[in-house]
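Annex B.
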Amino acid sequence: MIGLVLCGGNSTRMGTDKGMLPIGNTTWAQHAGSQLAALGLPVVYSVNESQVPAYTEQGIKPLITDDVELQMGGPLKGILSVHRQYPTEDIFLLACDLKDMHADVLQQVQAAFNGTTTIYENAGFDEPLCGIYTAEALAQLAGATLPKYSMRFVLGLIPVQRLMVPGNWRGYFFNYNE
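Molybdenum cofactor guanylyltransferase: predicted structure tokens.
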């Protein structure tokens, strides 16, 4: 299993690269990476080509750029780009803009993982940007012709184990997009 910090994207709503925003004496991307590394995972960072210089300058590595052959956008493009580089590895995904994520949340999903894609459900909605995606499920998605590329849509196409977010953990899933 590898840890994946999802940093790619155009940041159109935010207006700036979220992964490069400061949090303490580090960046959002490095913060997420350190949380995954604390679980004993090797960590990679998904970025688009335009982000490579800034991440390289910060010493963030290894970087996996979006695969131009993938005719899609959004988080799925980053995840499948990494899957193409590591086709046999399950991927523990954490988006860099979930900057309030807590170690207990990550440890629980890691402990509950049973070989099935494992994510959280928060007040009736999937939380697709923090969870473990199996290599098998990603291979299925990579080989499919998909009418939509939203994470919530593709989660309906693969077997998924959903963990309920306790009420006191809901704030950990706040996605900073604007």
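The chain has a mean pLDDT of 93. The radius of gyration is 15 Å. Further annotation is deferred to the next reporting cycle.
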